[in-house]
Amino acid sequence: MKKAIFLSLISLFVLQASLAQEKVFPIIEGYGAIEVIPFEVEKVDTSISYKILTEMYYSSDKKDEVYGLLDYSARMVNAFAYAGIPSEKVDMAMVIFSGAMFTVLSHEEYQKRFGMDNPNLEVIQKLTEAGVKIYVCGQSMMKQNLTPELIQPGLTIASSRIVATAELLHKGYLLMN
Questions:
Q1: N or C end of the chain: smaller count of CB under 10 Å?
Q2: Phi-psi region of 131 (alpha: psi -120 to 50; beta: other; left: phi over 0)
Q3: Which residues on adjacent β-strands are paired with residue 156?
Q4: What is the sign of the dihedral through the CA atoms of 132, 138, 141 and 145?
Q5: How far is the C-alpha of 80 from the C-alpha of 44, rounded, in Å?
Q6: Per-residue pLDDT of the chain (177 residues; tens, 9 = 90+)
């Protein structure tokens, strides 16, 4: 009986180990992990052009970790690449406002407010290098007493999230949060 239980446990361990998931990062290394799918999946139409919009607005108490929606945005970029869609066929934009404004603070400002470097700036840089357009809400900046010098350079400051999102939707972007 003990031998049967032992063999069952070993078999279960081997089965679980064989199902361990391999993660890949086709475009944005280190963020937005994609699980390798070892079986047949539906083929996507790689001739379609995609226009994707995400909004980031909620705060987080975990100021020492990468903001979850930034990692998810990296996952979106990686998911399109993993599916075989050429990067020139994916046009992605992000609008950051309200409680998520802390994610775009410079290292210096983040250090003053939270006592550490901003863990979000690396993924933001990788997203912009991958062609993602990042808009920061000017209204949120004003409400939070932020000036352009206090946020990460290279981001686009919009007059408001409302106008930026409306314009992007009008241009054909699909909101995916």
A1: N
A2: left
A3: 135
A4: positive
A5: 10
A6: 555 444 444 444 444 444 557 999 999 999 999 999 999 899 999 999 999 999 999 999 999 999 999 999 999 999 999 999 999 999 999 999 999 999 999 999 999 999 999 999 999 999 999 999 999 999 999 999 999 999 999 999 999 999 999 999 999 999 998
Alpha-carbon gap, residue 46 to 5, rounded angstroms: 50
Q: Which domains does the chain have, with CATH numbers?
A: 47-175 (3.40.1260.10)
Contact 77, 130 (CB under 8 A): yes
The model's pTM: 0.86
Contact partners, residue 96, CB within 8 Å, separation at least 6: 55, 56, 57, 103, 104, 134, 135, 136, 137
Beta strands in the chain (DSSP E): 23-24, 34-35, 50-56, 90-96, 133-137, 156-158, 174-175
Residue (of 14, 10, 13, 36) closest to 23 by Cα position: 36
Give Cα separations from 15 to 12, 38, 55, 58 (angstroms): 5, 15, 40, 40
